[in-house]
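step: validate -> pass
step: tokenize input -> pass
step: predict -> running
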Amino acid sequence: MKGATALVTGGSRGIGRAIALRFADLGAARVAIGYLRNDSAAEEAAEELRGRGAEPLLVRGNVSSERVAREVAELGPLRALVHAAATGVIRPALETEDKHWDWTHSANARALLSLTRSAAPQMPNGSSIVAISSLGSTRVLEDYVLVGTSKAALESLVRYLAVELAPRGIRVNAVSAGVVDTEALDHFPNKERMLAIGRERSPVGRLVEPGDLADAVSFLCSPQAAMVCGHVLVVDGGFSLPA
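step: predict -> pass
step: emit ->
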């Protein structure tokens, strides 16, 4: 990442923030962080990036909007594009509304397509696009129907983009995270139960941490992952393995 520019959506907090800071540690000259509306969190992340020698760029707004897509195109060539932003309505399927589906799928899945359309034409050979997914893409989690199906769509999109962009020298992959204790879990009514189960069922004896996801993303964006294409890398400490 030496001297490169990277974009991390959802980069002001949690997993996205850890990834943005890792890019700065790896020598990125400019790190753009996308966020919805929390200006104070974004400014804090920007200050951390400055402290690590990277110039922060703030991209504020709905990640699936045309305006954000235009701003991403104006960032210039990106070495890495990471779609870590995620949202969604956590409810049983029969209590959801069509507007909940549209909001969740637009931000979690369709946004990757619009961001890629904006960024890919300028991305150099050897650059990477990484989407952050979750185990709910393939497993049924309580009240997770909207987010889970959006993550399944996201992973499918990753495969299609991987095949289409490989001839351009752009790798597209995903990282699927296990249970991570971030602010995002505050929206789950069963948060404490999820954390308890995550600790109890983890073969490695702990929850996944944001730094674990940053490790995986930095690998996928490195030359060592040159032949990793359209892959979903599960980072869950073995949580999903027991029957």
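step: describe -> The chain has seven helices and seven strands.
step: cleanup -> pass
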